[in-house]
Amino acid sequence: MMIEDQPLLNQQLEMILMRLGYPTELMMSTQNLAEAESWLQQHLPNLIFIDVEVDSIAKLSFIRQLKKIHPDSYVIAILTQQQTALLFDAIQSGAQGYLFHHHTEAEMQNNIKSILRGGAPIHHDLAQYILSHQIECIKNKSSGLEENSALSLTTIEFEILNLVSSGLNSQQVADQTHIPLYKIEGNIKNTYRKIASLEH
Length: 200
What we know:
Elements: E1 2-3, H1 7-19, E2 29-30, H2 33-42, E3 47-51, H3 56-69, E4 74-79, H4 84-93, E5 97-100, H5 105-116, H6 124-142, H7 155-165, H8 170-177, H9 181-196
Parallel strand pairs: 1-2, 1-3, 3-4, 4-5
């Protein structure tokens, strides 16, 4: 299911999904959230693309509701790379991955494949944002400003974020740490799960 209003992007996604084995008759596309909600009552889409830049609050609320109804579905947020805070909010709402409007078809396909095999994509801006969120939460806790909402990151999750924030991609992180790529992607997905369990 695609919930966005860019015909060209829809066509790109359809081409990628067909290459990944999805028949066109099982693909649905709408710009309308109410229509998407009614479709969810009739169908059980396992892959949902949603442009979160337009009408963000309603779209994030839709993702949260969707994950309650269909916790096993894959939600992929679509947005521009500059919208890191919005991407973090989308992951906190339950999105397991993302695509950027400027991505090439190959980059989109790689991100979708990573999500479908149980991993998650990440880029340096998001890794930096997650790390700065951690620092902010720890500072606030030590100042007694608020309850601690820092993520309980494992050593390897923290190391992956540090390496990605320095500019490495997931494959380069795998090469440098001698950890298989699927484990790197699995750790990233686990970090996203921890973000999704934070209080809104």
